Amino acid sequence: MKSYTLDEAEDLLIGKKGTTERDEYEFELKLELIGDMIKTVRKKRKLTQEQ
Question: What is the C-alpha separation between 3 and 31, in angstroms, rounded?
Fold first, then answer.
């Protein structure tokens, strides 16, 4: 079984850096990470989504 680095796997499965597919994937990933960070901070401060 051949093993791959993370960069190699991303290139094979998502596309090489600079391609539209890769750019869209990285943008969506950043949005999801920002959302998770907001959720974590909100829960630590015991705030609701409305607050």
Answer: 29
Is 51 within the bounds of a domain?
A: no
| Nearest-angstrom CA–CA distance, 30 and 36 | 10
Cα–Cα distance for residue pair 25/29, rounded to 1 Å: 6
Report the distance separating Cα 24 and Cα 18, nearest Å.
10
Q: How far apart are CA 14 and CA 2, in angstroms?
A: 18
The pLDDT-based confidence of 33 (bands split at 50, 70, 90) is very high
0.85 exceeded by pTM: no
What is the domain count for the chain? Answer: 1
- Residue 34: give the domain boundaries: 6-44
